[in-house]
Amino acid sequence: xxxxxxxxxxxxxxxxxxxxxxxxxxxxxxxxxxxxxxxxxxxxxxxxxxxxxxxxxxxxxxxxxxxxxxxxxxxxxxxxxxxxxxxxxxxxxxxxxxxxxxxxxxxxxxxxxxxxxxxxxxxxxxxxxxxxxxxxxxxxxxxxxxxxxxxxxxxxxxxxxxxxxxxxxxxxxxxxxxxxxxxxxxxxxxxxxxxxxxxxxxxxxxxxxxxxxxxxxxxxxxxxxxxxxxxxxxxxxxxxxxxxxxxxxxxxxxxxxxxxxxxxxxxxxxxxxxxxxxxxxxxxxxxxxxxxxxxxxxxxxxxxxxxxxxxxxxxxxxxxxxxxxxxxxxxxxxxxxxxxxxxxxxxxxxxxxxxxxxxxxxxxxxxxxxxxxxxxxxxxxxxxxxxxxxxxxxxxxxxxxxxxxxxxxxxxxxxxxxxxxxxxxxxxxxxxxxxxxxxxxxxxxxxxxxxxxxxxxxxxxxxxxxxxxxxxxxxxxxxxxxxxxxxxxxxxxxxxxxxxxxxxxxxxxxxxxxxxxxxxxxxxxxxxxxxxxxxxxxxxxxxxxxxxxxxxxxxxxxxxxxxxxxxxxxxxxxxxxxxxxxxxxxxxxxxxxxxxxxxxxxxxxxxxxxxxxxxxxxxxxxxxxxxxxxxxxxxxxxxxxxxxxxxxxxxxxxxxxxxxx
Length: 661
Fold this sequence. Notes:
The protein contains 17 helices and 25 strands. With 661 residues, it is α+β, with helices and mostly antiparallel strands. It has 3 domains: 107-172 and 180-261, C2 domain (Immunoglobulin-like), CATH 2.60.40.150; 276-353 and 360-437 and 450-500, C8orf32 fold (Roll), CATH 3.10.620; 521-656, CATH 3.40.33.10. The model is unreliable at 71-98 (pLDDT under 50).
């Protein structure tokens, strides 16, 4: 197979550069001189080519060259970008590994390289991890124009060894046709930033949000050759949003190279105009929100104590309208039904925003990327995500802000059916409740519906287009009427005002919503691993008590249908399959024997932590520490995976033994 002339010359140039870099020519001259002195006989006038190659092989020169050159076993014509979306090889100069990625030569790409970090002073005293030793790690997550990337985990250190490259497609969403590549002017109008989230994972797999940064990448459009190096200072989150946590060295490069770069002055002017436009829109909305609030208080002075939340602080301490935290979100083929979406949101971990010292709850509404990458968040994060997913399924969904028992602030989701049915969705548990209002004008003897939901008061409801303040005489949920079109009960904000700052692309300060990612967890492998670890932990625990342990594999297998049934019930609210499970257990337990089982559910995969929790239950401890005649133990683990590598872990411990009276 012959290469095109331009490719052949390019290949020759690359080989020449590599040989020059290794100073191969100088080493060959030295070996040639040495060989002539040592091996050339007096009667010989010259060395043959074979003699010289033998000498080079003997001294390892050829081996060194072959190690430095990377070859791919695939056909060469597959590596050349002759047609769209053919595999093209990118070699990182820092690494000898050859990486492949699909690229379209008619599209424009931004190649973002992270070339190490420094000044992560919190880890200044961090000892160097030994080979094979578990240690805390940093992971960098990126989102840009519906594309998501994740770096390799690197050990936490004062200077973390980040060396990753990400190929971000800029030319998306009908920016020109397929035959015309986006030019510099077109790309200058793309205001989407690269959202970077830094996550720390400790040795127990617990995640912490370290930093959230929006990278303005368009400076590369005004740099020479379309290449620029940046030093990015990452700030902390929440109460530490003004404190630097570290610095990343970043290199940006346009691919293919720009034919014509813009002047830096043009780029700076465009960015300044966008900032000015955004600031003006935000100022006008703030003026409107103040006026709306004054009018709301004039209806009834007691409204001042209601939880009417117009703005909320994100992880960077920036006040944003609450409507900007919600947007219709489609899960593609990752989630099939609204109830499955509720289950997915439920299995994401719950954690209140950390606060230093006392003084009540620290408020922090996370951007969606930060919430998904950390895999846990506060009730508001869960409610915003669930509302976005339900809107994506075509439901009329709203986030409700109010209180639970004892006046604890809380957020949940509400859907309004076309028949007037109002349903509350608790995003932390996946439970659904029908709302039937109590009529306060009914006589005391009249039977009133008993609310099953835990909510006490409601101050406001909102979604991506609507914001409504509750202006009914009482803010009690049980007596609240959810006729949202009745302005005597719900005071609306202007939809135009909301859209001016919350509609997609309305302002450059609005973080774009990322797509959901499929799970990377192998459910079968993970289930087996946790099960084997639990067997070992149970055996050791019983050994400490002076008890032997005999496992019965068949009994363990029979527990599987029960675990599947429990998860199905959590997802659909329908119970199914229990009859077959009970029948199988009756057949497996002989007459005169007793069977005991204990199911439990977790949203993490740490076997030791789960076992410690199980032992705190007297029912479970009774099974694990069972004494008697012919004791047989069983344990079954079933991991159900969801997007974003969230998972529901069901564990069932069981035993059977001969009853001795």
